[in-house]
Write a structure and sequence with these properties.
The chain has helices at residues 2-10, 33-37, 48-63, 81-92, 106-118, 135-144, 166-175, 224-229, 241-251, 260-275, 278-299, 328-337, 363-379, 389-396, and strands at residues 22-23, 72-78, 98-103, 121-126, 150-154, 156-157, 162-163, 179-183, 202-206, 217-223, 315-319, 340-341, 343-344, 352-356. The chain has 400 residues and is α/β, with parallel strands linked by helices. The strands form 4 sheets. A 7-stranded mixed sheet has the order 2-10-9-8-5-3-4, sandwiched between helices. A 3-stranded antiparallel sheet has the order 11-14-13, with no helix packed on it. The chain has a two-stranded parallel sheet with strand order 1-12. Helix 6 (135-144) packs parallel to helix 7. The two termini are 33 Å apart. 46% of the residues are buried. The structure holds pyridoxal-5'-phosphate. The site of pyridoxal-5'-phosphate has 13 residues, from helix 4.
């Protein structure tokens, strides 16, 4: 219980002041009022004050990779997260490179699709909806094909919520003398990716995930030697990370119109992140959110897609109940009426839905989510949320 008090004291989470529902989604998510408030002022993108803000933004993000950060630099890129993933792939992968793409969900698939668009050769390991790619299979794929120069992996695969084992994937990659790029979109800021602990060339995330800003830009944190070597690789002017970086280094400015209000809001989000205790503090709150959510939902009969070992503190997939009276759209509407926006599932084999644990909310919010789920089930006449047997046997595949 002491831990409870400490966490409660670390940061004050307040309910959305504008009466909007909580977004239990992987971003855009519920942001603090003070973050929204920072968007009330206009900024000139050329002006020294905004340039100073951009410099602070880059330095503060870079500091989040901890020890080893001095070999890296941070380059923000306008657009949603997908833009910065595409910018990383198009800029850091030489045109004649060949990449091993690790897939276990929609975001891994999107990476493979991006590779096709930008004309970069790739081979894939596709584990289906939610099985994790493992170190030994990466090692085997790399041993079998000496032409592969890079590996790309999604950190938290937000489509199932699985936290992929990037440490063992990194070890397998560098043991074979290849390079690793990470899509840490939904994990960065809540799960440690210290460059001194996990080796990689670049990692990307965006404004509207675990740092709890509003959407509008993403950022790449890349090894400086890679940023230098990236010159001339890019297929796209607006997504050329080398050019954006070189220009920012020279002028302090973004090459094209920056999302000024979003950046201003993000600086406040970073301040709140620091105040909460950085990655550790944020990760602890999300972990507790998840634990309270999962315990409460299991009491109602719900089951998680993933075994505890693979559950991320970011988003959790629950199987739909077996009861015939369960209908997702009705459940969604009932939850929304109680102030909670949940998220449909993305599995191909069994029906499911997802609940996010990230954003401005804490364990109390999660208790209210569980209570809302209970009364929604009551309204639908469902006594137990137990999933069908088929769903449970699907999960048996995750025995490891
Ligand atoms: C959110 C997310 C993205 C980017 O999605 P956008 O909709 O373009 O912001 C990419 N990868 C992962 C793992 C994500 O969670």
């Amino acid at each position: 219980m002491k831990a409870d008090l400490e966490i409660d004291a670390a940061v004050a989470i307040e309910a959305p002041r504008l009466g909007e529902p909580y977004l239990l989604t992987p971003g855009p998510l519920t942001t603090a009022y003070s973050v929204k408030e920072k968007m009330l002022r206009d900024w000139g993108s050329w002006d020294g004050d905004f340039r100073a803000m951009t410099a602070r933004l880059r330095a503060e993000l870079l500091a989040l990779v901890g020890e080893g950060a001095e070999d890296f630099d941070c380059v923000p890129v306008q657009g949603s997260g997908t833009f910065v993933v595409e910018a990383m792939l198009g800029s850091l992968l030489p045109r004649d490179s060949k990449t091993l793409v690790l897939i276990n969900g929609a975001y891994g698939q999107r990476i493979a699709k991006t590779m096709d668009y930008i004309g970069r050769a790739h081979v894939d390991i596709d584990k289906g909806d939610y099985l994790p790619p493992r170190g030994p299979e990466v090692a085997a794929a790399l041993a079998a094909d000496p032409d592969i120069s890079h590996v790309v992996v999604v950190h938290c695969e937000t489509s199932s919520g699985i936290l992929n084992p990037i440490q063992e994937i990194s070890e397998a990659t560098y043991a074979a003398g290849r390079k690793l790029l990470i899509d840490s979109m939904s994990a960065f800021g809540a799960i440690d990716v210290a460059a001194g602990d996990i080796r990689y060339e670049a990692i990307v995330s965006s404004a509207n995930k675990c740092i709890e800003g509003v959407p509008g830009f993403g950022f790449i944190i890349a090894r400086k030697s890679e940023l230098i070597a990236a010159e001339g690789n890019a297929h796209s002017l607006s997504l050329d990370v080398h050019d954006q970086w070189a220009n920012m280094e020279k002028t302090g400015q973004w090459r094209f119109t920056p999302p000024t209000h979003v950046v201003a809001a993000f600086m406040e989000a970073l301040r709140l992140h620091r105040e909460e205790g950085g990655i550790q503090g944020r990760g602890a709150r999300y972990t507790r959110n998840r634990d309270v959510l999962v315990d409460g939902m299991r009491e109602l009969g719900f089951e998680t897609l993933l075994r505890d070992r693979w559950l991320s503190p970011i988003i959790v997939t629950f199987f739909n109940p077996a009861d015939d009276r369960f209908e997702f759209t009705r459940f969604y509407d009932l939850m929304k009426a109680k102030g909670f926006i949940i998220y449909p599932g993305k599995l191909t084999v069994v029906d499911s839905f997802r609940v996010g644990c990230i954003g401005q909310m804490d364990h109390r919010t999660m208790r209210a989510v569980v209570a809302a789920a209970k009364s929604s089930l009551d309204a639908m006449g469902i006594a137990s949320a137990r999933p069908p047997q088929a769903a449970l046997s699907e999960r048996e595949k995750l025995a490891a």
